[in-house]
Amino acid sequence: MQAAILPITAGWQWIIDGFNLFRRQPLAMFFWSLMTGLLITLTYLIPLFGQIFLIAAMPSLTYITLNACRQIEAGRPMLPGMWLTPLKDAQARAGLIRLGLAYLACCLAAGFIATLPFLDQIMAALNNESFDETALLSAIQGPFLTFGLLYILISALFWHAPALIGWHRLKMSQALFFSMVACWRNKFPFMLYGATWIGLFFVAQTLGDVLAASGLSATITQLIMTPINLVIAAILYCSFYPTYMSIFGRSAYNQADQTGSSPDGN
Fold first, then answer.
1. What is the distance between the alpha carbons of residues 175 and 155, in angstroms, rounded to a whole number?
2. Pick from 242, 231, 223, 243: nearest CA to 203
3. Mean pLDDT value of segment 92-112
4. Mean pLDDT in the chain?
C-alpha cells in the first residue's frame, strides 16, 4: 500500500468532497446520521456497557459509512436495506470485530494512562467535604488534555484501518501500520481538516446559543438545531471517504474490487 503525500489544502478539499457526496444523496446520508445519533443516544441509556459497545462498534460503523459513500460515488442509490450489507462478508466482519476490540483496548489504556498521574488530585477534589466544582474542573483538566493527545495517536492508527481490513484483506497489524504511516505523511492536511471541523461545530453551537438568547423556547431552538446538526454530522461522515481515496488513490479502489470485497458484500 502506497500512501500519497498531499498538500495541506487537502484538508479543506476533503470537506468539500464530503459535501459534494452528501449533495448527491442527501436523504440517504441524513438517514444514516439520524440512525447513528439514535444509536449513540440509546447506548447512553445503558451505563458503561452501552459506551463499551459503542466504542467497539466504531470501526464497523466507519466501514458501513465508507461503503455507503462508495455506492453514492458510483451513482448507485443507497436504500435502507443496504446499510448493513457490507457486514455480511464474514471475513470483513471478523476483522472489524477484532479491530473494534483493539480500538476499545487502546481507548481504555489511554484513559488509564491519562488518569493515573492525576488520580490523587481528582480524589482530593471529590473527597472534599465542601464540594468545590472549580477544584474538580481544575483536577480533570490534566487527564482530559493527556487523553486528547493520546487519542490523536489512536485516531491515526485506526483512521484507515477499517477500509484496509474490509476492502484489502490486510491483517490488523498491517492495517494499523499503513494507517499510521498515511496519517503521519499527511499530518498537516489532517490538522487543517480537524481544525476546520472543530470550527464548524463551534459555529453550530454558537448559532444554537444565539437562538436561545434571542428568546426562542428550548423546544423551538432544538427543532431548528437538530436537523442542522444532523446535516453537519452527515457531511462529516461523507468526508471520511475522500481522506481514504485521495491518500491511497484510485488504484487502491480498483485493488479493493479485485479482492472480491465489493461494497454490496458479495
1. 13
2. 231
3. 97
4. 91
Cα(first)–Cα(last) distance of the chain, in Å?
23
Name the nearest CA neighbour of 8 among 179, 249, 186, 155. 186
Residue 216 lies in a domain: yes
Chain segment 152-164, per-residue pLDDT in tens: 999 999 999 999 9
Q: Residue 237's closest CA among 6, 1, 14, 11?
A: 14
Q: Is residue 2 in some structural domain?
A: no
* pLDDT average, residue stretch 202-231: 94
What is d(CA 249, CA 181) in angstroms, rounded to the nearest whole number? 15
Query: Does a structural domain hold residue 97?
Result: yes
pLDDT of residue 36: 97
Yes or no: say if 69 and 240 are a contact pair by the CB < 8 Å rule: yes
Which residue type does 60 have? S
Q: Which amino acid is at 69?
A: C
- Is there a contact between 28 and 78 (Cβ–Cβ < 8 Å)? yes
pLDDT above 90 for 24: yes
- Please give the residue range of the domain that contains residue 74: 10-258
Cell numbers placing 38: 439514535
pTM as predicted: 0.89
Measure the CA angle with vertex 228, ends 160 and 212; round to 5°.
130
% of the chain with per-residue pLDDT over 90:
80
Which H/E stretch holds residue 55? helix 49-73
**Phi, psi (deg, nearest 5) at residue 159:** -60, -50
pLDDT score of 263 more than 50: no
As a whole number of angstroms, the distance between CA 54 and CA 46 comes to 11
3 in a domain, yes or no? Answer: no
In the chain, the amino acid numbered 18 is G
* Number of structural domains in the chain: 1
